[in-house]
Amino acid sequence: QLKQKRIRSERDFILSPTQHDVSDLKSPLGMAPPVFYGWLAVFGTIIALSLWPEGLVPHKYHLDKLAHLTAYATLAGIPALFSTSRRVVFAIAATLILISAGLEIAQYLLPDRWPSLLDLAANIVGVVGGTVSGWVLRMIYFAHWHRAGEIQETP
User: Between 20 and 30 A from 35 (CA), which of 3, 18, 74, 137?
Assistant: First the structure.
């Protein structure tokens, strides 16, 4: 029972760091540090791959669009699931859309890359889908644990 309580506490820390006395460990985006640093790693990887001289995902069957959608859905979904502020989540989503447009424009300057409006559209759909999915999963999580009596307040 003590082990279950410890595991539950760790899970709550990752999903909602503000419910614990860890104010000095909170990241600037309201996520627990492990989640925040993981998100930064994903973000950096997407930027690097967007500016890589040659595309790594084949354009056949529009697999590159699926890769764009998945990458930006992940990038937007993590803050939506783990951040403690809706304002931060929507600011991140808007910023991701602007960065996505900037990266597509930057590809115009690269020798073996070219910008694509379809890539930008896939990125935007990914950001919106990831944000909505993250919020839905967060609501399901808190509804479940709130019903079980393990969380007193839902965000």
Answer: 3
Mean pLDDT split into 10-residue runs, the chain, 155 residues: 43 48 56 84 90 71 86 94 85 95 91 88 97 91 65 47
Full DSSP string of the chain? -HHHHHHHHHHHHHH-GGGSS-GGG--TTSS-HHHHHHHHHHHHHHHHHHTSSS-SS--GGGHHHHHHHHHHHHHHHHHHHH-S-HHHHHHHHHHHHHHHHHHHHHHTTSTT----HHHHHHHHHHHHHHHHHHHHHHHHHHHHHHHTTS-S---
